[in-house]
Amino acid sequence: MTILVLMGPPGAGKGTQADVLAERLGVPAISTGDIFRAQVADGTALGQQAKGYLDAGEYVPDSVTNAMIRERLCADDTRAGFLLDGYPRTLDQVAVLDEFLAGQQRFVDGVVVLEVHADELVARLLHRAAQAHRSDDTEPVIRRRLTVYAEQTQPLIEVYASRGLVTTIDGNGETHEVSQRVLTMAVSLQQQA
């Protein structure tokens, strides 16, 4: 069983690398961003609530996010493990995840942190916004999201580092180069298991 958390600032390539890692490890990649965007597109009550936060570059409240993640982690396809992309994002979410996993006698095996230069992040997100017509990727929103990440999510890396779980991956460069670095780390993790 493998349970990984993939972290990094907005635009670091977490979604792309989550798919690469999940396929290599044979576990589902669970992305809160994808789930929120699907809810917005479907016009659900959760989606309408989330849209306001997403459009402003703010995090969706923990209570909503935690409930959604608990429900998803109870699905049958997570029994052999899973990869979390975009969760946890706050210290309270770390506590909720720890408690949920402890109740199932499971734990986080590792945390992969993608590091990318800030200017590269802005360029990537602006390009993605143009390609995908995403309302949550304007330059002011991108800069706000980077600030929110630094303030709220960066401390999580310190928590997981204190547990000896963090592996940092250079997320700069072409997608295939980053994927190779991620796969090398995944092979190492599997050998240690």
Largest sheet: 5 strands, parallel
Structural class: alpha/beta
Provide mean pLDDT, rounded: 88
**SSE sequence, one letter per element:** EHEHHHEHEHHEH
Beta percentage is 5-15%
Strand order of the largest sheet: 2-3-1-4-5
Gross morphology: globular
How many helical stretches?
8
Helical coverage, percent range: 55-70%
**Termini separation:** 9 Å
- The beta-strand count equals 5
Using only CA atoms, what is the Rg?
16 Å
**Oligomer type:** single chain
Question: Runs with pLDDT <50, length 5+?
Answer: none
3D structure, described in words:
Helix 6 packs across helix 7 (139-162). This protein has eight helices and five strands, in the order E-H-E-H-H-H-E-H-E-H-H-E-H. With 193 residues, it is α/β, with parallel strands linked by helices. Helices cover 61% and strands 13% of the residues. Strands 2-3-1-4-5 form a five-stranded parallel beta sheet. The protein is globular. The protein has helices at residues 14-25, 32-42, 45-56, 62-73, 91-103, 118-132, 139-162, 175-192; strands at 2-7, 29-31, 81-85, 110-115, 166-170.
Highlighted features:
alpha/beta; 193 residues
Structure summary:
The protein is α/β, with parallel strands linked by helices. It has helices at residues 14-25, 32-42, 45-56, 62-73, 91-103, 118-132, 139-162, 175-192, and strands at residues 2-7, 29-31, 81-85, 110-115, 166-170. The chain has a five-stranded parallel beta sheet with strand order 2-3-1-4-5.
How is the secondary structure organized here?
Layout (H helix, E strand, L loop, with lengths): L1 E6 L6 H12 L3 E3 H11 L2 H12 L5 H12 L7 E5 L5 H13 L6 E6 L2 H15 L6 H24 L3 E5 L4 H18 L1
Parallel strand pairs: 1-3, 1-4, 2-3, 4-5
Helix pairs in contact: 1-8, 2-3, 4-5, 6-7
